[in-house]
Write a structure and sequence with these properties.
Keywords: NAD, Oxidoreductase. Belongs to the NAD(P)-dependent epimerase/dehydratase family. GO terms for molecular function: oxidoreductase activity. It comes from Paenibacillus xylanivorans. The chain is of the alpha/beta class. The protein is 34% helix and 16% strand. It has a domain of 195 residues: Rossmann fold. It contains eight helices and nine strands. The strands form two sheets. The chain has a seven-stranded parallel β-sheet with strand order 3-2-1-4-5-6-9, sandwiched between helices. A two-stranded parallel sheet has the order 7-8. α2 crosses α3. The N and C termini lie far apart (38 Å).
């Protein structure tokens, strides 16, 4: 693979993915609604809701990393968020199929499980939460991610396309940890204290791009530890005492959203923790 398209290339994650791809010697084209001074590659202004524009922008590309999306059920009408995220995902995959592009990496989200934005909070069925856990969103954003994952499965059945959906937890960059209320455990209960350092998120995108796997795969991308200074057993006993099905033994600050599958499928794992910055 020589030429890689990154949708949402001007964004927080996309711009860093582009930089790393260039360091690896790839030609990169950024597809976004606006030009960005964050990236130093060819940029195409594209409305991903316009299929013709997507096909034209992806012509000559060998693989795609699709990161463009409205990233939360905020600031727009819910119907617009759902339509934007699902239609843009469909257009990228349909264009890839038409153009014979066989590898697509899709940005998905742990919000698809439903805990993060639930109007009526509920507990997981078991811990740690893995990819087999039911996805039960109560809002448009999490639902849009599920639709994109199912769409990816359809395109694999139709054309044999390799598609991996990366269910990112909250992405945090260096320098941002100090602004988070990590000592207040209740702050991140709704996301199960799950996070991923942006440097690891970037590396996961590149690992997914280069990995060989069969089918449309969906994997959690999360750190090895929780975004809390409390022991995991303490967090569970305090905030989720109703969850009795514990499928592993927790002894320290282990994450309660599993990243075991991404380690297996991509032969990759996260290497950064919020505690590294605290020690520095």
């Amino acid at each position: 693979m020589k030429t890689i398209a990154v949708t949402g290339g001007g964004g927080k994650l996309g711009s860093q993915v582009i930089e790393k791809l260039q360091l690896q010697g790839h030609d990169v084209v950024s597809l976004d609604k606006h030009l960005s001074d964050r990236v130093r590659c060819r940029q195409i202004i594209v409305d991903l809701n316009d299929y013709g524009q997507v096909v034209g922008a992806l012509a000559g590309v060998d693989a795609i990393i699709h990161l463009a999306a409205i990233p939360a059920p905020l600031h727009y009408p819910h119907s617009y968020i759902f339509a934007n995220n699902t239609l843009s995902g469909y257009h990228v995959l349909e264009a890839a199929s038409l153009l014979g592009i066989k590898k697509v990496v899709m940005g998905s989200s742990e919000s698809s499980y439903g805990f993060a934005w639930a109007n009526t909070p509920f507990s997981p069925d078991y811990f740690p939460v893995d990819e087999q856990h039911p996805q039960q969103p109560q809002e448009c954003y999490g639902l849009s991610k599920i639709v994109n994952e199912v769409t990816a499965e359809m395109f694999h059945r139709r054309s044999g396309m390799q598609v991996i959906s990366l269910r990112f937890s909250m992405i945090v960059g260096p320098g941002e940890y100090r602004h988070l209320a990590i000592a207040k455990a209740e702050t991140f209960k709704h996301i199960l204290w799950s996070y991923i350092d942006i440097r690891d998120a970037v590396d996961a995108c590149l690992a997914a791009l280069h990995a060989d796997y069969d089918g449309a795969v969906h994997v959690n991308v999360t750190a090895n530890d929780t975004l809390s200074d409390r022991q995991t057993t303490d967090l569970l006993a305090t905030f989720y005492p109703d969850v009795k099905d514990l499928r592993t033994r927790f002894s320290n600050r282990e994450a309660i959203v599993s990243n075991g599958m991404v380690k297996e499928v991509l032969s990759w794992g996260p290497s950064h923790s919020w505690t590294d910055e605290e020690q520095e």
